[in-house]
Design a protein that fits this description.
Chain A: Pfam families: DUF2243 (PF10002). Chain A: Keywords: Membrane, Transmembrane, Transmembrane helix. Chain A: It comes from Micromonospora tarensis. Chain A: InterPro entries: DUF2243_membrane (IPR018719). Chain A: The chain crosses the membrane at residues 20-41, 61-78, 90-110, 130-150. The complex is a heterodimer of chains A (160) and B (300). Chain A is mostly helical. Chain A has one domain (13-154). Chain A has 4 helices and no strands. In chain A, 39% of the residues are buried. The model of chain A is unreliable at 1-9 and 155-160 (pLDDT under 50). By secondary structure, chain B is mostly helical. Chain B has one domain (41-294). In chain B, 67% of the residues lie in helices and 0% in strands. Chain B has helices at residues 37-41, 43-59, 66-83, 93-113, 116-123, 126-136, 139-144, 147-163, 166-172, 174-196, 207-230, 244-276, 284-294. In chain B, helix 2 (43-59) runs antiparallel to helix 3 and helix 3 (66-83) packs antiparallel against helix 4 (93-113). Classes of the chains: A mainly alpha (160), B mainly alpha (300). The interface between A and B is large, with 33 and 39 residues.
């Protein structure tokens, strides 16, 4: 690694790199959900009669926060890169954690607890729900593994 | 498979179920709008805004950034679209919603990024400059231009129009209709300026407050849109002839259009943060050269 010899190469900011990755991961997964399941497949419904009004409120907040997370995450990422403080491994780990975490949150809280909408209508929901949440869990586990590897290796060579 | 999961129904009749509603049967009930004249008359102030800005930009002794001019002209173009081609559809909720999105969200961002106050300060005489400076330091302006106040004025104003009989009244009275539009534009401008305006803004709060205000405004907008969708049969109250399907698609337009506006506002907001965090670059090359010449290769 010639990069670490340069005097400008500071230590990566581990916490900021991970968090920026988490923000981008959450936002990208939310965007995929919005584009693929709401718009392209039209499986999810825009609104469903059983939605209580508290859920409407929390959905609005979450939806607004996702857009801000997307933009803020990318600007944070760009700032870390500019300052040579980005650990790309940790950012990837954060990305997977964020994406999987959002998938599980959406599957459990939005679909089941708040009952905003279901994955699909007019079918047996159980296989869809299981697949949805298992996919999220796989992403989270992959992210956790990557995080653990990056951290145990990072002690040696400056977390790059 | 006949068993539908509980609560799986959506209010019947998407746009397709009632497609005939789109070319609104001549809305004689809303006879308040003279059909041809005011659409083009309303373009006059927009042309004045664009021409006035251009004249000032040309006269700026320090040279004015062309990107600012482009932003201002884009804002004016959006205004023109909202007031010209969309004006003949006032009885249709989708036309009203498109106008709201363009007037209250997109156009103000372009106008704010044009930095008109800075341009005015460049070209005006010194008494005018002093007066502008005094205005910018005035306490009431700081209260009104606080991001939270501005968010309340823009999203709250929209809620006031759509949840009260104000909407139905504005359909009938032309003056009120124009007043509502003016309010959308002014509140949208105030909000965009308070979040991300390049113009001088004394006492502008920090990033956290501004992001919070954007979050609150965008969340309120999204909730309002879904609430209107859910209650399209009753909601802008006081209308005599209503078409729920048209109101539902207007609500969806509002929801997704609000996303676009939030995305643009957030980009402008975080871009100011990114620019301010930039490492101070300008003096460094000379400094490095000077230090490097003193002690060879110490800084290479």
């Amino acid at each position: 690694m010639t990069g670490s010899i340069l005097p400008t190469a500071r230590r990566a900011d581990a916490r900021a790199s991970t968090l920026a990755g988490v923000l981008i991961g959450v936002a990208i997964m939310a965007a995929v959900d919005e584009i693929v399941f709401h718009q392209l497949l039209a499986w999810h419904h825009f609104y469903d009669r059983s939605t209580p009004s508290v859920a409407l409120l929390s959905d609005g907040l979450l939806h607004a926060a996702e857009v801000i997370a997307l933009v803020g995450g990318f600007f944070w990422f760009a700032d870390l890169r500019r300052r040579h403080a980005l650990s790309s491994r940790l950012a990837w780990a954060g990305f997977l954690l964020g994406a999987g975490g959002f998938q599980i949150f959406d599957g459990l809280v939005d679909h089941k607890v708040l009952r905003l909408h279901q994955i699909r209508y007019g079918v047996h929901l159980v296989p869809y729900d299981v697949l949805w949440n298992v996919a999220g869990a796989v992403l989270v586990l992959a992210g956790a593994a990557l995080l653990w590897r990056a951290r145990s290796r990072g002690a040696g060579d400056g977390l790059r | 498979m006949t068993a539908v999961p509980p609560g799986a129904t959506v209010p019947s009749g998407g746009p397709a179920a009632d497609g005939s509603a789109w070319p609104v049967s001549p809305q004689l009930a809303h006879g308040g709008h003279p059909a041809d004249g005011p659409g083009w008359l309303a373009l006059l102030p927009v042309v004045l805004l664009a021409v006035g800005y251009l004249l000032a930009a040309v006269r700026d002794p320090r040279g004015w950034d062309h990107r600012r001019t482009a932003a201002w002209l884009a804002g004016c173009a959006v205004l023109a679209v909202a007031l010209g081609p969309l004006a003949p559809l006032p009885g249709d909720p989708r036309g009203h919603m498109a106008q709201h999105l363009l007037l209250g969200m997109l156009a103000p961002l372009g106008l704010v990024l044009g930095a008109p106050v800075t341009l005015l300060l460049h070209v005006a005489s010194s008494p005018t400059r002093r007066r502008v400076g005094r205005l910018l330091r005035a306490r009431p302006l700081h209260v009104i231009a606080h991001p939270v106040t501005a968010a309340l004025l823009s999203t709250g104003g929209l809620a006031l129009v759509l949840l009260t009989p104000l909407y139905a009244m504005a359909e009938r009275q032309s003056a009120l209709h124009h007043g509502v539009h003016l309010h959308y534009l002014a509140a949208g401008y105030l909000f965009a300026w308070s979040l991300a305006g390049p113009d001088p803004a004394p006492r502008r709060p920090g990033l956290a407050v501004r992001v919070g205000a954007l979050l609150g405004a965008a969340a309120g907008h999204a909730v309002l849109a879904k609430y209107l969708y859910a209650n399209a049969a009753t909601l802008p109250p006081g209308l005599t002839d209503r078409d729920p399907a048209a109101f539902q698609s207007a609500a969806q337009l509002m929801y997704y259009g609000g996303d676009v506006a939030e995305l643009l506002l957030a980009t402008a907001l975080f871009a100011t943060w990114y620019r301010r965090r930039a490492p101070r670059r300008r003096p460094s090359p000379r400094l490095i050269k000077r230090f490097a010449s003193e002690k060879d290769s110490s800084l290479t």
